[in-house]
Amino acid sequence: MAFFYALPGAVAEGLIWGLMAIGVYISYKVLDIADLTVDGSICTGACVCAVLIGAGCPVIVAVLAALLAGILTGVITGLLHTAFGIPSILAGILTQLMLYSVNLTILGGKSLATIDPRMNKLLLNMSDNTSAIIVMAVTIAAVIICLWLFFYTEVGLTLKSTGDNPDMSRAQGVNVSRNKVVGLGISNGIVALAGALLAQYKGSANINDGRGAIVIGLAAIFIGLSVSLKIKPNFVVSLIGVVGGGIIYYIVYNFVILLGLKTDFLKMLSAIIVAIFLAVPYLKNEYFKNKKLIPPIVNEDGGEEDA
Questions:
Q1: Which CA distances in Å does 62 have to 50, 56, 124, 186, 272?
Q2: Do the domain assignments include residue 305?
Q3: What is the reported pLDDT for 159?
Q4: Domain limits at 138?
Q5: 100, 114, 41: which is closest to 71 by C-alpha?
Q6: Are 37 and 95 in contact (CB under 8 A)?
Q7: Is residue 55 part of a domain?
Q8: Which of 73, 156, 209, 281 is the most buried (most CB within 10 A)?
Q9: pLDDT the model gives residue 290
């Protein structure tokens, strides 16, 4: 019964992290860049939102400011990668390290900023999970529609082509460097938006909120795509699947906690989930290959060789 009582909270938090995973999807799947900035940018979004709300700013203004701050973090990573020739994964790590100091400064040197839901009219809060689920569903729907419209514009299509084949895109006159900067800005903007909503939901922003965010994002992506690709492999379905992956991840996460797993092992659980969903497609292919379920190729001599 405790699991069913905890289910609405797991779904609400899963939707928030599913939104974050959409941002990771843009960088990881669309741009083909493993961007580690997200561990810092989600915290930046949370810190900016919490501090502005605490200073008396309207919630919408605080959320928009968090979104812009996230876009800026992605642009910095993109410029480090494209303008200075730093490998993308290292550029993300460098930005993430810088953001720790930036986030600490935003919090005024403290490690925590709280938001009182009784004093502020928030978009969502963990005291009302039903309302939080509705708000997150509407927000995610709006984000997916905006991304769908954007990625079918000329700029969006060239951004997709940049991730698919940067050399061919460059040969066709596409500004690959600009597209990477734009894509990383969009990606981290969405991540920071999720951070702003997470801070409101929890009622606080912590300097360590972003630790392991990339792992959760990847877990949501691989869980969601393993399901959504069986339905219809298009952009919108994939994004919906990623959100579903976030929900599934947090339901499993809460279930394991209720079973009595020590909190010390939760990060390891996240890593194991990602490893499993990464390994399953490979192991499945190896299994089918070893079982000779793939028809053999007949060579010129009439013999057979593996496909």
A1: 8, 9, 14, 18, 35
A2: no
A3: 92
A4: 2-292
A5: 41
A6: yes
A7: yes
A8: 73
A9: 65
- Would 160 be classed as within a structural domain? yes
Angstrom distances, CA of residue 73 to CA of 35, 96, 102, 183, 248: 11, 9, 11, 12, 29
Structure tokens at 87: 């490998």
Q: Which two tokens stand for residue 82?
A: 């494209």
Which CATH number is 139's domain given?
A: 1.10.3470
136 touches 11 (CB < 8 A) = no
Diameter over CA atoms, the chain? 81
Whose structure tokens read 């040197």? 109
Distance, in Å, from the CA atom of 34 to the CA atom of 169, rounded to the nearest integer, reads 20
Beta pairing partners, 114: 204
pTM: 0.89
Convert the pLDDT of each residue in 32-64 to its tens digit: 998 999 999 999 999 999 999 999 999 999 999
CB of 202 closer than 8 Å to CB of 46:
no
Bridge-based pairing of strands 112-114 and 204-206 is antiparallel
Amino acid symbol at 201: Y
Residue-wise pLDDT tens digits, 244-279: 999 988 888 888 777 777 767 777 877 787 788 778
DSSP-derived letter for residue 263 is G
Structure tokens at 93: 């790590």
| Residue ranges for the chain with pLDDT beneath 50 | 293-294, 307
**What per-residue confidence (pLDDT) applies to 303?**
52
The tokens for 151 are 């990625």
Phi first, then psi, for residue 174 (nearest 5°) are: -80, 135
**Is 223 part of any domain?**
yes
Helices (H), 26-153: 38-54, 59-82, 88-106, 129-150
Gap between the Cα atoms of 212 and 39, Å rounded: 6
Say if strands 112-114 and 304-305 run parallel, antiparallel, or are unpaired: unpaired
Query: Domain count of the chain?
Result: 1
Residue 289 has what pLDDT?
64
The pLDDT, as a whole number, for residue 274 is 74
